[in-house]
Amino acid sequence: xxxxxxxxxxxxxxxxxxxxxxxxxxxxxxxxxxxxxxxxxxxxxxxxxxxxxxxxxxxxxxxxxxxxxxxxxxxxxxxxxxxxxxxxxxxxxxxxxxxxxxxxxxxxxxxxxxxxxxxxxxxxxxxxxxxxxxxxxxxxxxxxxxxxxxxxxxxxxxxxxxxxxxxxxxxxxxxxxxxxxxxxxxxxxxxxxxxxxxxxxxxxxxxxxxxxxxxxxxxxxxxxxxxxxxxxxxxxxxxxxxxxxxxxxxxxxxxxxxxxxxxxxxxxxxxxxxxxxxxxxxxxxxxxxxxxxxxxxxxxxxxxxxxxxxxxxxxxxxxxxxxxxxxxxxxxxxxxxxxxxxxxxxxxxxxxxxxxxxxxxxxxxxxxxxxxxxxxxxxxxxxxxxxxxxxxxxxxxxxxxxxxxxxxxxxxxxxxxxxxxxxxxxxxxxxxxxxxxxxxxxxxxxxxxxxxxxxxxxxxxxxxxxxxxxxxxxxxxxxxxxxxxxxxxxxx
Length: 492
Description:
By secondary structure, the protein is mainly beta. It has helices spanning about 1-15, 25-30, 40, 425-435; strands at about 55-65, 80-90, 95-110, 125-130, 135-145, 155-170, 175-195, 195-215, 220-225, 235-240, 240-260, 265-280, 285-305, 310-325, 330-350, 355-370, 375-395, 400-420, 440-450, 460-470, 480-490. The radius of gyration is 24 Å and the shape is globular.
């Protein structure tokens, strides 16, 4: 994996390094996220040339810590993450190139009931044992995008390549291990019928593969649980075992953006897709381990208004996922889940030469439902959340000092849990997951940072950031969840 990391970093550096010659004010990186952009909202590489962001490069390192009892039962009790991230944007003769590279090292403590990359990916077919242990993970994520010049003053074409590679293993026996690979290709196009309107289309094709092993580096036999739903499972002792998950993920997204008189911009986006994964157990004589299908949907409407130094945003998003798993024994779709979320945002931002501020109000609602026909288990939750976000940035000679505060509350409006045929996993996996997702919780986030320059390297900006966040339930049995992050970045 070390060799692959070096190669990917070297390829990305060809994109990022040439931007050193330009002087970059650190605030431009943040301000470019506020106006409407088909690239930012829909990963449309053909729209890179329309993105209001000058060429830049940035490299940062950081550390994240997450801990606390308020967690889903297959999540780690504590997580320690170290990362290296580099990204950049470069324009060459009408072409625009963007890319990013990220390496993350995870040390997860006390994970139970999981032997896979992500037990909450939606796929119900999870390998596990009942032992708790610490995991070590290494993941790299690379992305490259290119947008063409305009053809006939109307058409632009683009292509994005996204690659995710990772592996992880538990440190204590029977030492389950996974290897994960995910590659996505996203060709795109934009069409501009007039100077104020642009249409965009993005097609995404993803290919995922995960390999799981257990017992290969152990002297003890494993008691392996094969989850087949939300409470349903098979169990057997094994000396060594392996399986492979292969899947595809296709998405289609249609976009529209227009600029109106008075500084008003509208952006609309709609799309959907199908994710399909097949599980095969064994390599020499593979057997069916489950089939998972998930449809997903999205719709978004965003309005921005910019008049002088006064700017406003109104944004609404609707996303949904509907998945089903076919049990390999009964040969029927017995496990289902549905996730729907509505998120709104309304706010303002203002910039002067020496000061910048924004404030947002973000209401949202979420509906979650799980069903297991074999275990006769069904539960659903309605949640509503309201959060307020405030950021302020001050210019001090050759530096910017800034802070951001967010406060909110998530309230469970309605919830129900039914388990007519419970299994031994119902009280340790299914019901605790329901309790976490149906719990009301207060939200508190605070971030502070400073961007500064030095006399020796006047073209560089240095950024130091500290962030603390918490979810607080007020329930002594559930507790709270805390996150702490610190990072250093160079912006050029």
